[in-house]
Known about the structure:
mainly alpha, Four Helix Bundle (Hemerythrin (Met), subunit A)
Amino acid sequence: MSFDSGPLDRYLSAAVGDDAAMALDLRGAFADSARDLSDLMRRARCDANWHVAALRLKGLAATFGIVPLIELAEEAMAGAPGDPAVLRQINKAIETLA
């Protein structure tokens, strides 16, 4: 699965134009939010908490049109709560986009 940051770049460009510093700040905020949700998934102690955190991650990714991260969040929701393999993939995707 490849990760294309194009959608995020397009959204940031539309939001801030040529302001590179602002785009960098917003990219950082996106990555921080995604990391926080991944951490919530990692710390989930029940199926419902896992599912809610994955759903929120899916929503964040959908806001910026990041299809691979949407698909990983859906995989997490459909799979076993606490699945370390999907969490590794999610974290790798987040770092690639950051």
